[in-house]
Write a structure and sequence with these properties.
Its main location: membrane. This is Ion-translocating oxidoreductase complex subunit E. It comes from Shewanella mangrovisoli. Its EC number is 7.-.-.-. It is a multi-pass membrane protein. There is one protein chain. By secondary structure, the chain is mostly helical. Helices cover 62% and strands 2% of the residues. It has a two-stranded antiparallel sheet. The mean pLDDT is 87.
C-alpha cells in the first residue's frame, strides 16, 4: 500500500530536490532574481513533472527497458513544449523573463529522475502525487530563494507579478524598503549561490535539532548464553 504521507515528506523536506538532491540548480540559480520569475518557473516545472509521471506510469508496461530513457525524454519534451506554448500565449512577459531556461526544463534531472525512480514502478495516481510533492518542494525552494534575492537586491516583493497573473496583479507589488541603488550581488548568480548555501545550512541545522529531540531507541538487554558441557 502506498504511503502518501511518506511521499509528501520526501518531496517537501527529507529528499527535497533543491535542498537535498541539488538537482535543477542551473535554472534555480539563474532566474530566481525575483519571486515572480521563481514562481513561474516552479509552476511550469511542477506541471511537467506531474504530467510526465502520469504518462510514464501509464506506458511503463509497454516500453522495452532498452529504450525507456529515450521514450521518457520524448514524453517530457512534448509536455515542456505544451507548457512553453501556454506561457507564451497567456503570460508573454514571463515567457520573455524565463527565456532559454523554460525549454531547458526538458533536461532537468528532477523530472527524468522521478520518471525513472518512481513513476516507472508505481501506478498513475501515486506517480501523480509524487510529481506534485516533488514539484511543490522545488517550487517552495525557488520561491524562498527568489523572495530573499528580490528583497535584498531591490527592496521589493512580487515585482512584475502582472507578468504571471495579469494586469490586475500590479497592485500586489510590495515595497519592503526604499533602495536607491540595487544590490547587484543579490541579483546576480553569485548571490544566488550564497543564499542557496545559507538555505541548505539552515535545513541541516533544523534536521539536527529534530534528530536531537527524538527519543533514543530503547536498548534491548543482551542475553548471554552459557554452554555447559557435561563431563562423565
Amino acid at each position: 500500500m502506498t504511503n502518501y504521507r511518506e511521499i509528501a515528506w520526501q518531496g517537501l523536506w527529507k529528499n527535497n530536490p533543491g535542498l537535498v538532491q541539488l538537482l535543477g540548480l542551473c535554472p534555480l540559480l539563474a532566474v530566481t532574481a525575483t519571486l515572480t520569475n521563481a514562481l513561474g518557473l516552479g509552476v511550469a516545472t511542477m506541471l511537467v513533472l506531474i504530467g510526465s509521471n502520469i504518462l510514464v506510469s501509464l506506458v511503463r508496461d509497454y516500453v522495452p527497458k532498452e529504450i525507456r530513457i529515450p521514450v521518457f525524454v520524448m514524453i517530457i519534451a512534448a509536455l515542456v513544449t505544451a507548457v512553453q506554448l501556454l506561457i507564451n500565449a497567456y503570460a508573454y512577459g514571463l515567457y520573455l523573463s524565463l527565456g532559454i531556461f523554460l525549454p531547458l526544463i526538458v533536461t532537468n534531472c528532477i523530472i527524468i529522475g522521478r520518471a525513472e525512480a518512481f513513476a516507472s514502478r508505481n501506478n498513475a495516481f501515486s506517480a501523480a502525487f509524487d510529481g506534485l510533492m516533488m514539484g511543490l518542494g522545488f517550487t517552495l525552494v525557488l520561491a524562498v530563494l527568489g523572495a530573499t534575492r528580490e528583497i535584498l537586491g531591490q527592496g521589493t516583493l512580487f515585482d512584475g507579478a502582472d507578468q504571471l497573473l495579469g494586469p490586475w496583479a500590479k497592485t500586489l507589488t510590495i515595497q519592503v524598503w526604499q533602495v536607491d541603488t540595487p544590490f547587484l550581488l543579490a541579483m546576480l548568480p553569485p548571490g544566488a549561490f550564497i543564499v542557496m548555501g545559507l538555505l541548505i545550512a539552515l535545513k541541516n541545522v533544523i534536521d539536527k535539532k529534530l534528530k536531537e529531540r527524538q527519543p533514543e531507541a530503547a536498548v534491548q538487554p543482551s542475553v548471554t548464553r552459557a554452554r555447559i558441557t557435561k563431563v562423565s
